Amino acid sequence: MQTRGTTSRHRFVRPVQTLSALLLAVGLALTGCTGASDSGASSTSADKAAAPGEDAGAGAQSGSDARGGKGDQAAAPPKLTTHIIRTASLTVQVKDVPKSLDEARTVVENAGGVVGSETTDRDSKGHERSRVVLRVPSDKYEEVLADLEGSGKLIDRRAKAQDVTEQVVDVESRIKSQRASVARIRELMDQATKLSDVVTLEGELSSRQANLESLLAQQVSLKDRTSLATITLSLSETPVKKAAEDEDPGFVDALAGGWDAFVTMFRWIALALGAVLPFVVGAALLLLLWARFLRTRLPRRPAAATATAGAGAGAGAGSLPVAPPVREEGGERD
């Protein structure tokens, strides 16, 4: 009988404990000290004590739902920091290139940036021009860009933005994994007893350390390019406008114009002669060759007859003259 009484008392105690837990949870909810998660947790504990098995699983699910209702912000994963590589190129026309270049340096240094490579030269017309690479913090990028644009007449502006957040996260994750891998290899080396195992582990350690160093170099490069924006500034000198000339030209102007025309005409004549001269020389050579060819082809009879006539004349000059024959008349014949 005592055993039955004790059992019955235990049966009555469990509902009382459950009811007390529920009342306590309701009271806490009404006072605002805790949220719905505490009541859910209390009810879950009571359900677990009252009905194990499937009821316990259902209680755990209700408890997790209650904990989720405590605050979505606390359960949500932290937002990733955006990493963006910003680059821009500006072409500005200014009156004084050296002065504008000094002003650009001052703007960049005041913003916490640095001045990179610089190139200065002159164009075919003698106008000075400079090209300089500027590195500025990403948070000062827009401000510095606006100041540089306002230094003169903006000719060209190009800006690019490349999001490398995924690449940065990937590199960081690979660095962590690689560091853990290197640490494991070192532990194995400490535990190795055979020389062959030590040699194998040393080769593996060298390979993984090389990969780790490569990843660290990528991380440094990404950090540099995302923390500092790159601006390429090109400054060109404004061409000086010529003074307006008088409407009525004077004697000096006419003389200068005539001289320019004369020089221009002489230049064109020289150019024409230079262009025609090769053809003239070629034609003269062809005519000379043709004349020599004709001489070799002509017959030499006239030359021989002339030589014979000359020889006869020389022989007659050395002897007495011969009288021509006398023709007889008709009467004398009879």
Automatic annotation (TrEMBL):
It comes from Streptomyces montanus. The chain crosses the membrane at residues 268-291. This is DUF4349 domain-containing protein. It comes from the Bacteria. Residues 35-65 have a biased composition (Low complexity). Residues 35-77, 309-334 are annotated as: Disordered. Pfam families: DUF4349. Residues 1-36 form the signal peptide. Residues 83-290 form the DUF4349 domain. Keywords: Membrane, Signal, Transmembrane, Transmembrane helix.
